[in-house]
Amino acid sequence: MLVIGLTGGIASGKSTVSKRLHDEYGLTVIDADQIAREIVEPGKPAYNHIVEYFSTRIPDLINRENGSLNRTALGRYVFVHKEELQVLNSLTHPEVRKEIIRRVLSSWIHFEKLCVLDVPLLFESRMDELCGSTLCIVCDREIQLQRLLKRNPEWTRQDCENRIDNQMSNDERKERADVVLDNDTTLDVLYDRLDKSIRRMQPSTAWTYLEVLCPPITFLSAAFCFLRNLLRRSQFESSYKRANLKKVE
């Protein structure tokens, strides 16, 4: 089974692509955002840790009517206080990763050819290390801003800019991803590019069954992908540091 990591900046069109992959191809899409919402429901361990740490910092952290997290207030706070975003990620990412791995294994057991990890912070959270291929959706920054303002009318333009600026840049995503799809034009163009990419990625039925029926092959294939991704990450980070040093000089 091929695990495809799907990522992209906020309001880039990633959710549109995710829906297309599910509806048109019938692929299992493991939505990290949905999982992230589930693991912070009242009473869950991550919820308790977040309340314990942030309740003194964010007065309106809890919605009084049902005890759920006020995600807007929490998001606004951590995107202004960048060091606190790292704390929030440390409280939620381990739980998200566990659930993602569980769902990937379920897809593998059911002889699925492809499954998709829909993860906005795919590279930042190192979830790309689990993927056989990565697909990145990008668009112009101004288009992102306009989509965000339309989708979230309660956010100010500054709120939107903070969220974009606190994510990895499109240039960095493009360098890391195996496949990059631009979403600056029409949906028809985006779908055509996506369809061609998925057809190239899709493994054969024979290989899919061989992986499940012969676990050592699965292990070797997964180990190869993992090591390859570690090497690529190391090479990228080294070149990125050298580029930044040159800028400083």
UniProtKB/TrEMBL annotation:
Is Transmembrane one of the keywords?
A: yes
Does Kinase appear among the keywords?
A: no
Gene Ontology BP terms: coenzyme A biosynthetic process
Q: Which Pfam families does this chain map to?
A: CoaE
Which keywords label this protein? ATP-binding, Membrane, Nucleotide-binding, Transmembrane, Transmembrane helix
Q: Name one GO molecular function term.
A: ATP binding
Task: Identify the InterPro entries for this entry.
Answer: Depp_CoAkinase, P-loop_NTPase
Record-linked SUPFAM superfamilies: P-loop containing nucleoside triphosphate hydrolases
- Membrane spanning residue stretches: 206-227
Read off the NCBIfam families from this record.
dephospho-CoA kinase (TIGR00152)
Q: Which HAMAP family does the entry mention?
A: Dephospho_CoA_kinase
Q: What is the name listed in the Swiss-Prot or TrEMBL entry for this protein?
A: DEKNAAC100387
